[in-house]
What we know:
Chain A: Keywords: DNA damage, DNA recombination, DNA repair, Metal-binding, Zinc, Zinc-finger. Chain A: A zinc finger (C4-type) spans 58-73. The complex is a heterodimer of chains A (204) and B (368). With 204 residues, chain A is α/β, with parallel strands linked by helices. Chain A has seven helices and six strands, in the order αααβββαβαβαβα. Helices cover 41% and strands 12% of the residues of chain A. Chain A has a four-stranded parallel β-sheet with strand order 4-3-5-6. In chain A, strands 1-2 form a two-stranded antiparallel sheet. In chain B, 45% of the residues lie in helices and 24% in strands. Chain B has helices at residues 36-48, 123-126, 129-143, 145-171, 176-216, 235-241, 243-249, 270-273, 276-298, 315-326, 340-350; strands at 2-11, 14-20, 25-29, 67-76, 79-88, 94-97, 100-101, 114-117, 222-227, 260-265, 268-269, 303-307, 333-337, 354-360, 363-367. In chain B, the strands form three sheets. A six-stranded antiparallel β-sheet of chain B has the order 2-1-4-5-6-7, covered by helices on one side. A six-stranded mixed β-sheet of chain B has the order 8-12-13-3-14-15, sandwiched between helices.
Amino acid sequence: xxxxxxxxxxxxxxxxxxxxxxxxxxxxxxxxxxxxxxxxxxxxxxxxxxxxxxxxxxxxxxxxxxxxxxxxxxxxxxxxxxxxxxxxxxxxxxxxxxxxxxxxxxxxxxxxxxxxxxxxxxxxxxxxxxxxxxxxxxxxxxxxxxxxxxxxxxxxxxxxxxxxxxxxxxxxxxxxxxxxxxxxxxxxxxxxxxxxxxxxxxxx
Amino acid sequence: xxxxxxxxxxxxxxxxxxxxxxxxxxxxxxxxxxxxxxxxxxxxxxxxxxxxxxxxxxxxxxxxxxxxxxxxxxxxxxxxxxxxxxxxxxxxxxxxxxxxxxxxxxxxxxxxxxxxxxxxxxxxxxxxxxxxxxxxxxxxxxxxxxxxxxxxxxxxxxxxxxxxxxxxxxxxxxxxxxxxxxxxxxxxxxxxxxxxxxxxxxxxxxxxxxxxxxxxxxxxxxxxxxxxxxxxxxxxxxxxxxxxxxxxxxxxxxxxxxxxxxxxxxxxxxxxxxxxxxxxxxxxxxxxxxxxxxxxxxxxxxxxxxxxxxxxxxxxxxxxxxxxxxxxxxxxxxxxxxxxxxxxxxxxxxxxxxxxxxxxxxxxxxxx
Lengths: 204, 368
C-alpha cells in the first residue's frame, strides 16, 4: 500500500504488528486518531508507556501486579493452603470470575510443547517447586487447572511427577458436560470421559 | 445411489455443460485431452469435495476465469438431494447441500460415496507404505469416525515426541518425566489403531480375495497381510528401550506409523515380481473390495468411476469385469475410454441399458 506520509506509514506499520490487526484496520485506527483531538492520542500513548515500564509481575505467583506481591498473594482472606496452577493470566481471570475459588494461584506462562520449542525451563515450574518447598507445612493442595489438550495433559503429567515427593494432594479440574448442556449434543470424547470420571451422589 | 444430472461452469476445460444421466451405465468416449476424465473429476468433487487429480482447487478453474461451479442432483433410495460445490478465486470453497452451505466441508464427505479406479492406482502397490496406509486409513475412517480422531491425535503426539527427541539429542540430557506422557499417548492410541486395522483387514481380505479370484479365474494365488511391530507381545518395552536410537535419529522408529500392508502373488512380493496386468488386477480387486465395504456400511450402492482402465487389462480381465457389471453388482457407473468402438462392443455384448456420450473439447453429445 502507498501512503501519502511517512508518519502515517510508520504508525500503520507499528499498529499492524498487533495480533488480529491488519494494514487496513491499522490505517483506519490511525485516521481515527488524527480526527480526535491531540490529548486523546497523548493519553493513549502515555497509558501504553506506563503499562510497559511500570508493570510488575508478582514474585510469588507471576500474576500481573502493581506491587511486588499481587493482591491475591498478599490477601489474608485468601486460603494459602491451596495453589491453583494455570497457564496464563486470562485463565486466572476466568477462574476468578467464577467466584468459587478462594485459594492462591501460580501462573506457568505457557504449557509444554516441544514442537514450539517450549520446555519446562521456559515455564515457571522451578519457582512453583521452590514456593512449595519454602512453605511445605502450609500448602496442602495443588490444583492443576490446565487446558484439556495433549499439551495441557502432558504439562499436568510432568508437574505431577515433580510434585510426587511432597506431602500434598494434587488434583485436576473435572472434565465433562458443560452446565446447561444437553447430552445428545456433547461430543463422544467428552461424554465418554464424563462417564469414566462420574461422581457419586451425596445423600443427606 | 444415482446421479441424475450434473451442470458445470468454468470447470477445467468446460465453459458450461449440462447433462442428464438417466441410465445406470454411462460411457464417456473421445480423443485424449477432450475432457473425459475432467467430467469424472467433477463427479469426484460432488462426492468428496475435492479433485482426485489436483489438490490445488484454484488450478481446476478454467483458464482466464475466476470461479468454477459444479452442481448435481443425487437420488438415494427415493430421496433427492442437490449438491453444489463452487470456488471463487481468493475465497473459500463453498459446498452446499440442498442450497444450505456446510460450516465444515468435511461433514459432506461420506454422504454420497464414490469409488474411482484409474491408471495411477498401481502407485498403491509400487509406492511406499504411506500410500498403502492412506488407502486403508481412508476406508476405516469412513466406517469408524473415532478411528480418524485417534489417528490425528496419534500423529500430533508423534510430532511432539519427535521434536522432543531432537531437543534431547541437542542437549544430551533426556528428561524421562517429559517424554513419558508422549510415550503413553503413542502406546495407548497405537494399540487402539492397531486393533482397528487388524479387525478391518480380517474383514477385508476375504472380500478382496473373492474379487481377485474372479478377475484372474483362480490362476494365481494372492495374499494381503497387515504387518505391524505391535503384534510383538513385548512391543511396549521394546518401544521404551529404543529411546537411545530414537534420539540419535531424531524420530520415533517403532509404532503404527511404520505399519505396512504386504501384497504377494504366489508368495513373492507383487511390487517386484507382479506383471503389469497382475498389479492392475490386484488394484482393481482392492478397489472393488473397498466398494463392497462402503456398500455394506451405507446400505446403498456408491457410484463407481472407471477411468481409462481398459488399456492396461487383457481381454479376459475386461470380460470378467464387464460380467460383474452385467450382473448388476454395481449401481450407477461412469466409464471413460479413448476408443468408442471398443466400449460400444463391450457393453453391447452385455445388452445393458447404457448411454454413450461423445466428448469433444468441452462439449458433450449423446450418441444414439
